[in-house]
Amino acid sequence: MKFRCDRDVLSEALQTVQRGVSPRPGLPALTGVLMEVADGTLTLSTTDLEVSARLAVDVQAQEPGIALVPARLLVDTVKSLSVAPVEFEADASQAKIRCAAYEGSLRLLPAEDFPTLQAPDGTRVTVDAPTFAEAVGQVARAASRDEARPMLTGVLLEVSREGLTLVATDSYRLAIRELVATATAEARAIVPERALSKAGRAAQTVEKGSVEVSIDESQVTFKIGGFVLTSRLIEGEFPKYRSLLPEASDNQLTVSRQHLIDAVKRVGLLARDNAPIRMEFNGIGVRLSSSSPDLGQAVEAVEAKYQGEDLVTAFNPHYLNDGLAAVPGESVRIEVRDGLKPGIVRGESDDFTYLVMPVRLPAPVA
Questions:
Q1: Given this model, what pLDDT does residue 24 score?
Q2: CA 319 to CA 3: how far, in whole Å?
Q3: How far apart are CA 181 and CA 108, in angstroms?
Q4: Is pLDDT of 273 > 80?
Q5: Which of 84, 171, 180, 307 fits a disulfide with 100 by CB distance 3.0 to 4.6 angstroms?
Q6: Distance (Å, rounded) from C-alpha 350 to C-alpha 176?
């Protein structure tokens, strides 16, 4: 194998596929990046057996071939090189790298030990790349980190003829994003949050274009330009999330998103050890307060448009601010029924819904 490539192009490509390298692999081959040169194209592949990444880039190919190179060492080496063309040559045991005045060699791993990656199959859905990236960022934050409930550590993908729905919940909040998409059939799959977030970050680099998602019984594949990411699916039954959504409420607050985010952050500084922020909704807007016996107390009123009955509720400030940060636009709408029902956070459109469970306030002392 022998090829020549721009340093920046090669470095960026290696860093992209490095997302598929396992930090604690059981097999030495999983620490490597498989490099295949054919017909003027370099294809880079990595896998940890759960998530696989593959990227094709154009190079000046001189000799076709295959080599399995230690990924981290290769990434760090290429990243450190001068901004100049990189010449890469590999035989059966080592790879030689030349760039400007630098010349080095890396010992190869057995290429035959690298797992065979399955081709994408199943139901296909195509969605706008920037929109997909935004949706992943909005929804993935609500996925659980508790491995004891694996279904909740993933994001549900629901594919219909009309579009694609992304859903995540950790039992304390629920995030739903509806996307316009083109699909070949209906499908439903739970994708590990780690894999979906990697696909979302890859889609962020695409200003124009689309993401092609393929879902079969055991895996999902995201194709974004020349980058392909494949992940195993999580088995199990995702909660019936639509039954968790409360009925529409006449109690609705419309407020500057950034003003409320800042207020929640300030008042939430005293809400330690999962203590909630108290929110009093009235005709002036909303009054936030929190207190700690050891630290003190904080109060801040935020002027806003409020329609409905005066009421008091409380939320975990971290969960609330996560929802506020996920909403696009300058204003945010918060619907509340009473102090015991979930709050609904939406932006200027209804394509994104964020539900946050309330925290029960202690009864006042008579």
A1: 65
A2: 50
A3: 43
A4: no
A5: 84
A6: 10
Type and span of the H or E element at 77: helix 71-80
For strand 187-192 and strand 154-159, is the pairing parallel, antiparallel, or unpaired?
A: antiparallel
Cα 72 → chain centroid? 23
pLDDT above 90: residue 91? yes
Q: In what order do the strands lie in the sheet with 173-180?
A: 187-192, 154-159, 163-169, 173-180, 352-356, 343-346, 331-335, 252-256, 305-307
Lookup: tokens for 53: 């990444």
E strand or H helix that includes residue 85:
strand 85-90
Sign of the torsion angle spanned by Cα atoms 123, 129, 130, 133: positive
Q: Which two tokens stand for residue 254?
A: 């419309």
DSSP state, residue 230: E
CA–CA gap between residue 95 and residue 69 (Å, rounded): 8
Burial 257-286 (b: 16+ CB within 10 A, else e): bebbbebbeebbebbeeebbbbbbbbeebb
What pTM, to 2 d.p., does this model score?
0.90
| pLDDT of amino acid 365 | 39
What is the rounded radius of gyration, in angstroms, for the C-alpha atoms of the chain?
Answer: 25
- The confidence score (pLDDT) of residue 366 equals 38
What average pLDDT does range 110-122 have in this prediction? 89
In sequence order, what are the beta bridge partners of 222?
213, 229
Q: Round to whole Å and give the CA distance between 150 and 167.
A: 15
Q: Which residues contact 239 (CB under 8 A, 6 or more apart)?
A: 151, 152, 169
Residue type, 366: A
Q: Span 203-229, mean pLDDT?
A: 92
Pairing of strands 343-346, 352-356: antiparallel
Which among 360, 275, 322, 336 has a CA at the least distance from the CA of 143?
322
Place of tokens 């993401």: 211
Two tokens at 208? 């124009």
Q: Which amino acid is at 283?
A: G
Q: What length is written for the chain? A: 366
Distances (CA, A) of 130 to 164, 165, 363: 14, 15, 47
User: Tokens at residue 333, please?
Assistant: 């709408």
pLDDT band at residue 348 using 50, 70 and 90 as cut-offs: confident
